[in-house]
Amino acid sequence: MGRVRAFVQDDIPRVAELYWQFLQSQKGPHPPGLEEYFQEVFLHNPWFDSSIRSLVYEDGSRIVGFQGVVPRPMFMNGRAIQAAFGSSLVVHPESRATLAGLKLLVAFMDGKQDVAMTDTSNRLNQQLWERLGGSTSAAYGMKWARPLRPGLYGLYTMSRLGKERFSGAVSHLCGVLQETINVVAARIPRGHLRRPPDDVTEEELEIDTLLRSCLPGTSECYSLRPEYNRESLRWLLDFMSRMKAFGNLRKVVLRGATKEIIGWFIYYAKCGGIADVVQMGAAEFHMNKVLDYLFWDAWNRGAIGVQGRLEIRYAQELSEARCFFWGSVPLLLRTRNPELARLVQRGDACISRLDGEWCLRYGAPGHEGASAALDLASKQESNPETTKKLAPSNFQPSQPLQPKAAE
């Protein structure tokens, strides 16, 4: 008879094997770094709470299922609450008839957190959540995108569609097409997009600036918002930079003519692919400038498009910047507090890609953020000698970071 219990250190090798074979669909032994990933994310993250643990399904002496859980402290109307994001639900195919996955999900949803959430679900998972008393928030299920190189963006979209709908020779050809797109994009001259105004300068976004000057302005208008400190932010951004799950993490703060902060953004730069925005913000009336700078910056780093999760308050500026919108993975939640559920349902929660499971993805060769072609393009771009050979004579490197101004 199987049982659900807390995930512990000794479970890591078996859980990593399950994840690698049946969630990532990879053959052969899992990479050593995957075990370190599970240890860091699910046992040593800065929000670890011994009362809200990741879970395994044990059948006799075998671990046949895993439900990752990461606590995330939040504030609701100024009162501290505990949220928990679920991730990486995986069950061995031979044990799915035992309802191991359902039992893991029930145990997670019935945990001691004030609200259970997930932002990376599929349609089946969504149906399970709803049948178990959970709900879906459409306010966090929209994405926006801005093509930067429309021809290549269209081809890239076709290649991704082909991979999802076909198999065999057609999928192989689509894979070759995508790799070709990545390499070609790395060779295209830069500087086509409109350069941002001369009175806007960039600096690397540092932890203290993000914590004290950027995040408060972004979240203060919401009733439900995440709680961060220097330790947790530093760990999270360092983790994302090391994993490179969607590319190379870039953190930028923008200043105006008098050195005041007018906006900021964090995104994954991906040469020959789609740049994914993690989070962005702007002072009043400055979002248009922030978007112009973001698109120019991503273009300079070889991206063929930019995309992110839609924040409704920026919908007008995104529309004016020629972005398009579509429905995507919704946010799923389960809470015993009706008021908390209403806040999330009506979009009164500051929940970005920085706050859930999306930013905690594993990154490794063969993962969606690190294809061989992307690695090749990135190496070509980062190597000055190679760049000289590939780039046309009028190529200009992207703008370097400016020295940090006084706060």
Model description:
With 407 residues, this protein is an alpha+beta fold. The chain folds into 2 domains: 3-141, Aminopeptidase (3-Layer(aba) Sandwich); 143-327 and 371-390, 3-Layer(aba) Sandwich (Aminopeptidase), CATH 3.40.630. It contains 13 helices and 15 strands. It has helices spanning 12-23, 32-42, 100-109, 123-131, 150-165, 168-186, 207-219, 230-243, 287-300, 315-320, 338-345, 372-382, 384-390; strands at residues 3-6, 55-59, 62-76, 79-91, 115-118, 135-137, 142-147, 201-204, 224-226, 248-255, 261-269, 274-282, 305-309, 324-327, 331-335. The strands form 2 sheets. Strands 1, 2, 3, 4, 5, 6, 9 and 15 form an 8-stranded mixed beta sheet that branches. A 7-stranded mixed beta sheet has the order 8-10-11-12-13-7-14, with helices on both faces. Strand 2 and strand 3 (62-76) form a beta hairpin. Helix 1 (12-23) crosses helix 2 and helix 12 packs across helix 13 (384-390). The radius of gyration is 22 Å and the shape is globular. The chain starts with a strand and ends in a 17-residue tail after the last helix. The model is unreliable at 365-407 (pLDDT under 50).
H/E topology pattern: EHHEEEHEHEEHHEHEHEEEHEHEEHHH
Separation of termini?
A: 61 Å
Major beta-sheet overview: 8 strands, mixed
- Kindly state the number of beta strands: 15
| CATH topology annotation of the largest domain | Aminopeptidase
Shape: globular
Structural class assignment:
alpha+beta
- Per DSSP, the total helix count is 13
Query: Which range does the strand content fall in?
Result: 15-25%
What's the overall average pLDDT, rounded?
Answer: 84
